[in-house]
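Course assignment 3, question 2. Fill in each field.
Student: A.L.
Task: Predict the tertiary structure for the chain below.
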Amino acid sequence: MTALSMYQASVPVFCRGLAALAKELEKAAAYAAERKFEPGILVNARLAPDMLSLAGQVQRASDTSKFSGERLSGTPSPKFPDTETTFPELQERIANTISYLQGLDPAAFAGSEDKEISLSTLGSFKGDAYLLNFAVPNFFFHLATAHAILRENGVAVGKRDFLDLQA
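Answer field:
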């Protein structure tokens, strides 16, 4: 049996999650259009006053995935200024993040499980601990929170949407 590589445990997981999020945002934009309300209401919605808005959740999911790609592969990631305020802008950010991730060379991840990863707020990790104990859980936290914001606001998204499962 072949061991799962750091690339396999990260890039495809992030791309699939971001693609699912993009589909949920499409449903959210359609929901706002159908009900004739300003889409910015959803983009700025949050679960609690001290939590990030939907836009912030999308931005953090994007950042977590692209910074993970950079930290593990050594390939510089694109810089995004966190200024998205519309569904099209959030979709563009997701598309640009997926494009970056899909452009990463799997060979660049070789040995990254033992690479020292330092985060200013959390200290240092070996690459495998960074990916499995921080990056992937953090990524899914932001995806799940974005999903919950949409659900809380009436958008018809469910588990199949979150998991990107076809009917």
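Instructor remarks: Residues 11-103+112-162 form a domain with the Four Helix Bundle (Hemerythrin (Met), subunit A) fold (CATH 1.20.120.450). The mean pLDDT is 97.
Grade: pending
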